[in-house]
Design goal:
The chain is mainly alpha-helical. The chain has 13 helices and no strands. It has one domain: Up-down Bundle (Growth Hormone, Chain: A), CATH 1.20.1250. Helix 3 runs parallel beside helix 6 and helix 10 runs antiparallel to helix 11.
């Protein structure tokens, strides 16, 4: 069976884009929050709160982005996200005060809503149809190494050039790497159509399942909140336990391979058990990890 070169190009482009996108959004402040706070004398809570602003904006943008993806305009959304990431990161680098800094994170939030996993996976789904499952997992495998690559890279760049220059370098990555990858390697589906202004379809739940949907939403939201907090404060937590910064960075890079390993397990044997067991396993793993760090 020959290799589908076009499919491989799409997966490589989307996976590489996700690696850079997550590395310069979710994992950005892990290395840069403390330097930003020290240099500007802004309250650390506000510095870290920038990411919260980004996630809130991302949530409001995601539904509209999904409509474009459904109409076959995933490439457009991804290219837009690269431009927004570049603009937001540049604005962070040039921020003279907290107001501009928070505005920059709002721009990054728009980028997150148009360019993270939801849009990448949806784009793969529109392109590959019933064979998209394997492609989505492969994209996630590449994206899973974001922390492994960008945490050490962020510390290295910040140590030599400062946090502002680091943000400018990351902005350039989106313009020089992500934008061309999306524009050249991700095709537009043959059946792509203009996006109409019709309302989004409403989901219809079976009677008695509403509470299950609500409970799952609460669990997923809480888990992602904990994961985001741990990601932002990972190095501070480890250095607070007595580790040197170098040791903390080295140890935390294991997060990426662990994510990839879990996804490989899901790919190989996960299909044999109910989907809710994957969610339960994730919650248990996060809880166990936090407990072990606190010991």
């Amino acid at each position: 069976m020959g290799i589908d070169v076009k499919r491989l190009k799409v997966i490589s482009a989307l996976g590489s884009g996700q690696l850079i996108a997550f590395g310069t959004s979710l994992y950005l402040l892990t290395a840069l929050a403390q330097p930003i706070a020290r240099d500007t004398h802004w309250d650390l809570a506000w510095v870290v709160g920038g990411y919260s602003i980004g996630t809130l904006v991302s949530a409001t943008v995601a539904a509209q982005a999904g409509r474009f993806v459904g109409a076959g305009q995933g490439r457009l959304m991804l290219c837009l996200s690269a431009l927004l990431f570049a603009g937001g990161l540049s604005l962070i680098a040039l921020s003279p005060n907290l107001i501009v800094y928070c505005l920059a994170w709002a721009v990054i939030g728009c980028a997150m809503g148009t360019g993270l996993y939801d849009v990448a996976f949806g784009t793969a789904g529109r392109l590959f149809g019933t064979t998209a499952r394997a492609a989505i997992i492969q994209i996630a495998l590449l994206g899973g190494f974001a922390s492994t690559v960008f945490w050490p890279l962020s510390h290295l760049l910040e140590g030599h050039f400062g946090w502002r220059a680091t943000c400018l370098v990351f902005a350039a990555l989106h313009l020089v790497v992500c934008l061309p990858l999306y524009a050249l390697a991700v095709p537009v589906p043959i059946d792509a159509a203009p996006v109409k202004g019709s309302p989004l379809p409403k989901a219809h739940l079976v009677i008695g399942e509403g509470w299950l949907f609500t409970a799952m939403g609460v669990v997923v939201t809480l888990e992602m909140a904990v994961v985001a907090v741990m990601a932002v404060h990972m190095h501070a937590l480890l250095t607070g336990r007595g580790l040197s910064l170098a040791a903390a960075v080295s140890l935390s890079t294991l997060v990426g391979p662990s994510q990839v390993g879990a996804r490989l397990v899901e790919l190989t044997v996960g299909r044999r058990w109910p989907a809710y067991l994957s969610l339960v396993s994730g919650v248990v793993a996060v809880t166990l990890g936090i407990v072990l760090i606190s010991l």
